[in-house]
Design brief:
The complex is a heterodimer of chains A (94) and B (220). Chain A is an alpha+beta fold and 94 residues long. Chain A contains three helices and three strands. The chains are: A alpha+beta (94), B alpha/beta (220).
């Protein structure tokens, strides 16, 4: 089985997000006074071959703990979509 | 005195020659060790200099932990050998898990290049054992990700173990508790954001960095 995985990397609670804070302060200049909690993180996308969705998830969690994120300052959220047919052939998940 | 000092070089490291020059000026011999090597040879001390190891891809210091040489550095550190990480080297040591905490983007979101005031917070570490707590030093910083952070328990633990080595006298980057440098529990592994090698000759405007490097080379 092939999966397209997206890993959303965010900030641990209590960790400053100076980019998010700066963008939040800038948005009112465009007239948006209704914005709060702007957070800027990272998005990592990868294609993984695994025996099952839970197997894929487990492997990606390990990748997150050891490389993709720094658990001291970052959080992660994994979402998986199984690739079938042409998408699996092409593997790019476009 | 440690006479043979290994200076670890990753693709993107750029301070290795400055470090070698400063160390040589103190009478020690340095040897560059490329990251693909797996042995530190007969080195008595190890320095990971500043730069942009592996292009700072993903996170600063994140990819260096997988370079073959880091296994030897970790073993050397575990055996009590003196290890110093400067700037990007500090980031590498935190990512490798040899030092607690992490370095995030400066609070002001600006790259900082300036001479800053430092105060020695502990002289239990290899970098400061010949200094006195409270000693004031003037040493340059040069970084975008120097904003030290760790969780509350880690900070309490570091304070209890006297692992906070240097503090900024006027916090330039938002670092937690004004932290400019920390050590591991044993004190033989130290990381700091300021560049002591850039304050190692009168012509550079300060020789305060030599105080730290001399301590680092002093006999254990």
């Amino acid at each position: 089985m092939k999966f397209l995985a997206r890993v959303e990397v965010g900030h641990q609670a209590g960790i400053l997000d100076p980019q998010g804070a700066t963008v939040q302060r800038a948005l009112p200049a465009l007239g948006y006074e209704n914005i709060s909690e702007v957070k800027i993180g990272k998005s990592i996308r990868l294609v993984i071959e695994a025996n099952s969705e839970s197997d894929a998830r487990e492997q990606i969690e390990k990748m997150c703990e050891h490389l993709l994120t720094n658990p001291v300052i970052e959080t992660y959220e994994i979402s998986l979509v199984e690739l079938t047919g042409d998408a699996a052939e092409n593997s790019a998940g476009e | 005195m440690a006479r043979r000092v290994a200076v670890v070089v990753f693709p993107g490291t750029n301070c290795e020659l400055d470090v070698a020059r400063a160390i040589s000026s103190l009478g020690a011999h340095t040897e560059s060790v490329f990251h693909l090597e797996d042995s530190l040879g007969s080195a008595e001390a190890v320095i990971i200099p500043g730069g942009f190891a592996h292009g700072d891809y993903l996170r600063t210091g994140a990819l260096a932990q997988f370079s073959p040489i880091m296994e030897s550095v970790s073993a050397f550190a575990a055996a009590g050998g003196p290890v110093l990480g400067i700037c990007n080297g500090f980031q590498i040591l935190t990512e490798t898990g040899l030092l607690p905490g992490a370095l995030q983007k400066n609070a002001g979101l600006k790259f900082l290049c300036a001479s800053v005031g430092l105060s020695v917070a502990s002289n239990r570490s290899v970098l400061t054992r010949t200094t006195t707590v409270g000693d004031q030093l003037q040493i340059p910083i040069n970084h975008f990700e120097g904003n030290y952070i760790c969780d509350r328990e880690t900070l309490a633990q570091m304070k209890a173990n006297d692992q906070i080595v240097l503090r900024y006298t006027d916090n330039p980057n938002g670092s937690l508790d004004d932290i400019a440098g920390v050590s591991n529990e044993a004190g033989n592994v130290v990381g700091l954001m300021p560049h002591p090698e850039r304050a190692s000759a009168e012509i550079l405007g300060s020789v305060d960095g030599l105080v730290l490097l001399e301590s680092f080379l002093a006999p254990l």
